[in-house]
Specification:
mainly alpha, Four Helix Bundle (Hemerythrin (Met), subunit A), about 0% strand, elongated
Length: about 160
């Protein structure tokens, strides 16, 4: 019998909270993208850096903990294969953004395209992968949520910039 109940926050709930958080960051970036304010480039850089860090941590906890467990519990591996390919594409764009200059004319476009990739990825997880994970009898998604949270906190601490 699955230990996950409909009302208990589980691994999917945690991952979806990450999705909503980063969606808000992309929206904040989009609002700044057209700004001519002198402070806009620095604010865009800070937001882009936050987006990149959040996505790197999220992808890592999915790849280390969530995806392997789901792969072992469900038969539809094509969903996981696609998710991993989408992560690779996102990581490439994240690297370009992190290495890029916020004054580059293509900087905003790269962040926008990353947001579009992430929107697509989130829809697939939310509509296809999460329901299958929740239906899998072999997965304890409540216990996995705790694992994901602990690893996320650890990674966020490691990736925080060191104050000079």
């Amino acid at each position: 019998m699955a230990t996950t109940t409909r009302s208990a926050p589980d691994a999917c709930t945690l991952l979806d909270a990450d999705h909503r958080n980063v969606k808000k960051l992309f929206k904040d970036f989009e609002e700044l993208a057209g700004s001519k304010a002198k402070s806009a480039p620095k604010k865009k850089r800070a937001l882009a850096d936050q987006i990149c860090m959040e996505l790197k941590v999220h992808a890592q906890i999915e790849e280390e903990i969530f995806y392997p467990a789901v792969r072992a519990a469900i038969k539809e591996h094509d969903l996981l294969d696609e998710a991993e390919v989408e992560h690779a594409s996102a990581k490439d764009l994240i690297a370009q953004i992190e290495e890029g200059d916020e004054n580059d004319p293509k900087f905003d476009a790269k962040v926008t395209v990353l947001g579009e990739y992430i929107d697509h990825h989130v829809k697939e997880e939310r509509n296809e992968m999460f329901p299958k994970a929740r239906a899998a009898r072999k997965l304890d998604l409540v216990q996995m949520r705790d694992q994901l949270m602990a690893r996320k906190e650890e990674l966020m601490q490691q990736m925080q910039p060191v104050a000079a």
